DNA sequence: TGTTAGCACTCAACAAAAGAGAGTGCTAAC
DNA sequence: GTTAGCACTCTCTTTTGTTGAGTGCTAACA
């Protein structure tokens, strides 16, 4: 239905309810406003558009947006050029990179953005080393494939001898090298402990620390940017709403669920949540567009845009694809 | 002047301009409204209070708040009990701790809060170790006093021999052990390089990496929380203002300057910036109360509360002192 | 001299009333 | 199937009063 498309297009731009007159005038359909009105009636009956009040124009419903996103989006309209060369520098620290990407997205789209730290799934241990840092502490350094480095300080009762350290290092490396993080289980731990002899306890500590260091860190860390952009959209800028939305973005609760949902699922393309589709009460006036990026070797994360329901889906989808693509390439040099 | 105190107290509570009648009624001064009016005239002339418009009550000016903060605050009124046992758990990762503290502050005060990561000033190197992680990379682990661990991956052209590594480790440790980070200068580097012989280049890389790893990381990292609390205060919740303030908090520009100012100065107590006193246009409707915390060995940071000018200074100062105290103790076990 | 009562005046805030304008649904004609 | 015309609805804006809090000033009082 060309008319639905026209209505949504117009509403995306202005944010105002659009009336029959406007459509009749500013499209090349060459239909009078009366005809449009009839059609509108039908569309309303189908639940694709609605009137905020009698004698106002129509605005799209969530279902209406859905149709638009699924069938009517014009991929050629993508205005990605501006961001094409965004040059995600290979930043020293992942954290900064993510924050930078979030900012980039927010600035580029004028919406709010989020990006989750990649989860380290199926990452393998590549190198372990214990060193006596001072008489009371041993430093365990664990390097994973993809050169992720973690370290942990382990207090010890007494200083270890040079030989003991050497022995333990050897032991740990031979037993854990190439083992995926998830596969470190009690059985394996027990086996290694046994071989450690007197240092059983210490080895237990080291493995615990390793597990600890790897898991909960980036667990569900989400970086956001451009939250204040919501003030650009009058329909969201109202006190009550703005407050709720900002709180949501700050606390990241709803975003967390979305990210988890994304990571759990197998789907890897663009996903669009319109209004209540995200199951989150606080998101009812927002749309969230997400996609998955993949740093390789199971390091996946989610990146997305949060904006008003009347967001420029074409543009956002384009930009997200771009970013995800860039991130995908980043570590595959 | 008891009257000024009464006016400010009242205004802090209500946020509404306070009239002569109110003061006359709800204080134990036993003065009629007429008298109060006369006094108010004087206070206005002195620039301590002002009227938003004729026929409205008076509100304090920045100067008025200043007087209050400097001379009239009632320390006994502190309502810190609620937070007394806040139990800042010794979190694994500093970052989480700081974020947690920020949230605690925001929740406890109902204002926005900020905390800067501690700057590592005068921290000394305690331990350095190079290890061959894989054929192309060497991992440099640097441990500082206070057990701050940094690491950096250095690409190398060819694998080093066991002996070479041992030699370099020995060299680096003997030359850099106990050296404050700031004192690593070109002269020192040259001297070490010379001793490194064939590995001159590699050593240079390591030291560069070390310097790199230590400095810019936590440099001016600021964690904030509770930004949305500003919506609680009608005088800030207006679109335009709220947006500016939230943007400021998100971007952290102004906060950064304040933190730097604090760290540069020698003062270590509570500091209150009222309105324009912070030199930041965007802060003109806000007050910022900060204090410095000290994790020991020169690891200092700034923690503060950002709120409306009519914030409950007594309470905020109390809580901040408490938090700073807790943080001070944290690492001094 | 400091305090108080009284009064006229000002001005924001609220509410009711009056238009204006946009948009609709429906009917009748093309 | 499309269009013109018209009465009707409802929001939004503007206007006009009205109210009430609060002031400044003057004159009386202790």
Short overview:
The structure is a homodimer of 333-residue chains. Chain A is of the alpha+beta class.
Write the layout of secondary structure elements.
The structure is a homodimer of 333-residue chains.
Chain A: H1 2-14, H2 20-26, H3 33-45, E1 49-50, E2 59-60, H4 62-72, H5 81-84, H6 94-109, E3 112-116, E4 119-120, E5 125-134, E6 137-144, E7 148-155, H7 162-176, H8 186-196, H9 200-214, E8 222-225, H10 234-237, H11 239-251, H12 253-264, E9 271-274, E10 286-294, E11 299-308, H13 313-330
Antiparallel strand pairs in A: 1-2, 3-8, 3-11, 4-11, 5-6, 6-7, 9-10, 10-11
Chain B binds a DNA duplex (30 and 30 nucleotides) through residues 17, 19-21, 31-35, 37-38, 40-41, 51-57.
User: Could you tell me how far the N terminus lies from the C terminus of chain A, measured between alpha carbons in angstroms?
Assistant: 46 Å
- Going by CATH, the architecture of the largest domain in chain A would be 2-Layer Sandwich
For CATH, the homologous superfamily of the largest domain in chain A is named as: GAF domain
Query: What's the domain count of chain A?
Result: 3
